[in-house]
Automatic annotation (TrEMBL):
Keywords: Membrane, Transmembrane, Transmembrane helix
Pfam families to which the protein is assigned, alphabetical: FA_desaturase (PF00487)
Biological process (GO), any one: lipid metabolic process
InterPro entries cross-referenced by the UniProt entry: FA_desaturase_dom, Fatty_acid_desaturase
Every Fatty acid desaturase domain range: 90-381
Transmembrane annotation, as ranges: 42-67, 87-109
Molecular function GO terms recorded: oxidoreductase activity
Protein name, entry field: Fatty acid desaturase domain-containing protein
Length: 433
């Protein structure tokens, strides 16, 4: 190999988890599996009241600003100060409402997992109402999301956030004389060739990340964006005959479609009566922020240079469930911001590993379950915590996670220079070290 960069000393090694599902479930206190429709409904009420309160306060302040502008007949530079103030007010409204809207999204998500209540009817009724209000085809999403949980971390059977492979970028196969795809040894020549094909400026990465965060979710629903590559090109969440669905799920998909049509009709009528600008300001901006929060969190849960992806026969449900990170939000564990946002989002970021171990555990019990599971994982040397969710972390992950190899039972992301941070422990043992 020509001038191979010595990367082995910088690489961590990964041994596939040897813990069993029985061991994981046995350490969780029994009461954590208990669901209460009444208790879950309280969280829905709090989130809805949060949205209403923010709207009321914003419209009151907006009316006050409008009245002041009218009375004082402000002109010149002062007029633009008023306009800027109103823009800032409604921008703050959009972000604030999206926080509670994202929290409602999480509750609807729990309904899809039957974690809201013991009653399937209550779960589906509440989930359909919440997710339709947020523009989500509830039943269609629930079906594909169940596949995500069944095959999390699988290279071909997982659903969203699947890694791109070397061949997906139309890159030529690795030349064995310049690159060892198993242990990430690579020559300077091969590394530079990959950078020429995949490298991008920091600004380009930031713009790509922004577009993905804002529009990745609707594109996934409409076009299977970042979904399984072997699905037909016309795959989407609104076609009941799509490969995602079984024949007996036809009417569930149609029910979601009807609900989404009613939602779109409601927005259209609202726009006709009050103007498109009002709909965009009151609903559209928070909607985009909610999409952003959803994609930001889920992408970071399942994407990191330290997280494995599996192919058969290495994949198991337990390995997939543990191929994710718990992450606090906007602050390290123990900080005030992490506590506030963690509880505001109902712990979906802080307790994501437990959620994949048993998705029927309601969020208010997931905190305790996470403590118990982490104690076991730590004793086995299994890392389950990532850095806090933030734009900076998303940028780092986008820079370091560009592609994985087309071969290998356990693979890790490589950056645009073909360098990985982890390799399976079997590679180390095979090399005689």
């Amino acid at each position: 190999m020509k001038k191979q960069t010595d990367l082995k000393s910088a690489l961590g090694t990964f041994a596939a988890p040897d813990v069993t599902m029985k061991e994981l479930l046995d350490v969780i206190p029994p009461h954590c599996f208990q669901r209460s429709a009444l208790r879950s409904s309280v969280y829905v009420l709090v989130d809805v009241l949060g949205i209403i309160s923010i709207y009321r306060i914003t419209t009151f302040l907006d009316a006050f600003l409008g009245a002041s502008l009218s009375v004082n007949l402000v002109s010149g530079p002062q007029f633009y100060v008023f306009r800027l103030t109103r823009f800032a007010l409604w921008s703050l409204y959009g972000v604030s409402v999206s926080l509670f809207g994202s929290a409602l999204w999480v509750i609807g998500h729990e309904c899809g997992h039957r974690a809201f209540s013991d009653s399937k009817f209550i779960c589906d009724t509440v989930g359909l109402l919440i997710h339709t209000t947020l523009g989500v085809p509830y039943f269609s999403w629930r079906i594909s999301h169940s596949l995500h949980h069944a095959f999390a971390g699988h290279m071909t059977k997982d659903q969203p956030h699947l890694p791109f492979t070397r061949s997906a970028f139309n890159l030529p196969p690795a030349d064995p004389t310049n690159e060892n795809t198993l242990d990430s040894g690579i020559s300077e020549e091969a590394s530079e060739a990959l950078w020429e094909a995949l490298g991008e400026s920091p600004i380009a990465t930031a713009l790509r990340s922004m577009a993905y965060l804002l529009f990745g979710w609707p594109l996934y629903l409409l076009t299977n964006f970042h979904g399984p590559a072997d699905y037909p090109k016309d795959t989407n969440h609104f076609n009941p005959d799509a490969i995602i669905f079984k024949s007996h799920q036809y009417w569930q998909v149609m029910c979601s479609n009807v609900a989404v049509v009613l939602w779109a009709t409601g927005l259209t009528v609202w726009a006709a009566k009050s103007g498109v600008w009002e709909v965009l300001t009151v609903y559209g901006v928070p909607y985009l922020w909610i999409n952003h929060s959803l994609v930001l969190a889920t992408h970071l849960h399942h994407t990191d240079p330290l997280l494995p992806h599996y192919r058969d026969p290495e994949f198991t449900f337990v390995r997939g469930a543990l191929a994710t990170f718990d992450r606090t939000v906007l602050g390290k564990k123990g900080t005030v911001t992490a506590w506030i946002f963690g509880h505001l989002f109902h712990g979906i970021c802080d307790n994501h590993v437990v959620h994949h171990i048993c998705s029927k555990i309601p969020h208010y019990h997931a905190w305790e379950a996470t403590v118990a599971v982490k104690r076991l994982l730590k004793s086995r040397g299994i890392v389950s915590d990532g850095a806090p969710v933030s734009w900076a972390e998303a940028y780092r992950v986008w820079r370091e996670c560009r592609f994985v190899e087309d071969e290998g039972g356990i693979v890790f992301y490589k950056n645009a220079r073909g360098i990985a941070k982890m390799r399976p422990v079997e590679v180390e043992s095979a090399s005689g070290k």
